[in-house]
Amino acid sequence: ARQRLSDSQWAKVLAVLPGRIGVRASNGGNARRFVEAVLWMAHTRAYWSDIPIEYGAWHAIYIRFGRWAHENVWEDVVKALADLPKTQALLGALVEKYQASYRIQRLRGKMK
Description:
The structure is a single chain. By secondary structure, the chain is mostly helical. Helix content is 64%, strand content 0%. The protein contains 5 helices and no strands. The mean pLDDT is 87.
């Protein structure tokens, strides 16, 4: 898969990830490939379904992205990308967009 992070940058991200990453994924997944897929999304602003297959199944990536958003994992990942301000801003915006959309969906559900 295409890499957006150097090994030293990945080491900073890995250091902030919770222990036993990927335990809930059916196959454990590859954390770096997953993070790279999300960074691809942040940089391209494409649809989730457009994620290149080399990163894995787009729906599984989206579900895991959402789980990490709800667990505030991305907050620490964004901080770990301090030496990549553009990537940091794009990832932060992607997470904020997801969380805002989720809040709206929850509110709509309560209004019915």
